[in-house]
Amino acid sequence: MTESEMSAIRSRYLGVDKKKRKIRKMNDRKFVFDWDAQDDTLNNESPAAAGINRQGAQIMFGRGHLAGLDDTGPIASRRTGDVQLADARERRQAAKAGLDERHWSEKPLEEMRDRDWRIFREDFSISARGGQIPHPLRSWTESSIPVQILEVIEKIGYKEPSPIQRQAIPIGLQNRDIIGIAETGSGKTAAFVIPMLAFISRLPPFTDENRHLGPYALIMAPTRELAQQIESETRKFASPLGFKCVSIVGGRSVEEQQFNLREGAEIIIATPGRLKDVIERHVLVLSQCRYVVMDEADRMVNLGFEADLLFILDRLPSELMEGEDNGEQMDVDGETMVRKGRSRVTTLFSATMPPPVERLAKKYLKRPAVITIGEAGRAVDTVEQKVEFVAGDEKKIQRILEILNSNQYPPPIIVFVNQKKTADMVAKGLQRGGWNAAILHSGKNQEQREAALNSLRTGDADILVATDLAGRGIDVQDVSLVINFQMANTIEAYVHRIGRTGRAGKQGTAITFLTNEDYEVMYDLKQEISKSPISKVSIELAKHEAAQHKMSREMKRKRDAEDEG
Ligand SMILES: Nc1ncnc2c1ncn2[C@@H]1O[C@H](COP(=O)(O)OP(=O)(O)OP(=O)(O)O)[C@@H](O)[C@H]1O
């Protein structure tokens, strides 16, 4: 590739505007790009391997819902191509520093480190807490799902687990209670049905001696439609395994449902009102029901089913399950606990956690793992997002010092930049201003990275200046403020960045310095901030010409051609 072609790509990558590029053309020899020649990503390594896998992860499943391929989304945009170039460049630098920066999708399971798992969860917008959370599923086969169930999954044609399935299934297979917060359409049914079927498969088969004792598993849902949707999804898995599902919902005669129950059913799907009715008429008992799922629990409570739910849950067996009371010692969040025996496995899915649902969870679930997927737990709700148009590196550094000296945001604070050279320059500027800044970018080796993160944890450093790739999967608590010294190249990268603050229920703040060069992501940024109930789109961004509509690839091409001219 010729130097002028290279220069054209670089200036496009840098997104410089027409006026600047004209000046640059005149003084070409003096201008130094933001990376060293030897870091050039345009040599033989394919950038695709670096970035497409992460982007690929987002193609399959958007944040918490099954997203189709979207050719206007960030995946297709050339900017993503730039991001891949940037990621690839950072990976090359990291490799030179002796760091293994392969994306998790390029690693065998046994080489996955904690940071890879943190990046994996970020890629699928998975967060989980509750102590001793098992790793999420990278694929169906890398799991302890029984073979006969894996064969059914393959027949159904589910190529990849959805985000909620990736995290809920490994936890469910441990027979551990779960609270799942995920949107409708995210694949919750399979997320609770697969562990449920693994559990039932270990129980004695239904015979005339035990079928009258009622179902082994019960799934409750707020409406008849949802219960029937869950029934049809559950049948896909249960029927090939020889298990019977029966739904008990309003709108059907009790006689008909009595008829359907005459041979018993391992799994019952029901709306609480009708189920309570059928129990009171002694048409059904729950004497051997050891697996309970409440789906869309917030809607069940909002529809007035709280009392019915309590009635039903109080009729479940209370004696301990065989072999469960093993007194096994375990460490949960540093506290030694003895695994108490349990009478059942209880899973609760909900899009929100209003007080009545919280009360249900506290009363009927034991040491639940709490899984949050995508939007439900995204920064959008807990991070106040601000934007300031600041042109020039010096002005930006001065502005950061003003923010820091206002003492409005206690350390640690993270400053994100787009290139490693910028990271070094910003850290020096902050140090000149009397602030101790640690640096994290792919030019740093593992020891330097650990030292940087450690200095932040011990308080030796107040600020971490990081690039996107190096900033992925970092585990720094209580970040009060994220500053985007340069706007991220894509809105996904922006959301990952601001997600470093506003965690564990605390509110955080993100301040982004914008310039006219950020025209490609301005519309997406305006949309993202508009979604936040605690943020306001600044007038300057709201009125900016580039924020009025999503820039199609055609428009980007035209604008670049103009710039080239
Ligand atoms: N891993 C997967 N791969 C492909 N399609 C899936 C996968 N999991 C679920 N689906 C499909 O996605 C759709 C939504 O699934 P599901 O009904 O479980 O979503 P949900 O609304 O989250 O669950 P629920 O109905 O329990 O609230 C269904 O058509 C289902 O067949």
TrEMBL record:
Query: Where's it mainly located?
Result: nucleus
User: What is said about its interaction partners and assembly?
Assistant: Component of the U5 snRNP complex.
Q: State the compartments where it is located.
A: Nucleus
Q: Which domain of life is it from?
A: Eukaryota
Q: Spell out the InterPro entries in the cross-references.
A: DEAD/DEAH_box_helicase_dom (IPR011545), Helicase_ATP-bd (IPR014001), Helicase_C-like (IPR001650), P-loop_NTPase (IPR027417), PRP28/DDX23-like_helical (IPR057479), RNA-helicase_DEAD-box_CS (IPR000629), RNA_helicase_DEAD_Q_motif (IPR014014)
Record carries keyword Metal-binding? no
Q: Kindly give the PROSITE patterns that the UniProt entry links to this protein.
A: DEAD_ATP_HELICASE, HELICASE_ATP_BIND_1, HELICASE_CTER, Q_MOTIF
Enumerate the GO terms in the molecular function aspect. Answer: ATP binding; hydrolase activity; nucleic acid binding; RNA helicase activity
Q: Which reaction does it catalyse?
A: ATP + H2O = ADP + phosphate + H(+)
EC class, as a word, reads hydrolase
Q: Which residues form the Helicase ATP-binding domain?
A: 169-371
UniProt domain Helicase C-terminal: residue ranges: 396-545
Signal peptide coordinates: none
Q: EC number(s) on record?
A: 3.6.4.13
GO BP, one example?
Answer: RNA splicing
Q: Does the keyword Protease apply?
A: no
The name this protein carries in UniProt is: RNA helicase
Q: Which residues form the DEAD-box RNA helicase Q domain?
A: 138-166
Protein family per UniProt: Belongs to the DEAD box helicase family. DDX23/PRP28 subfamily.
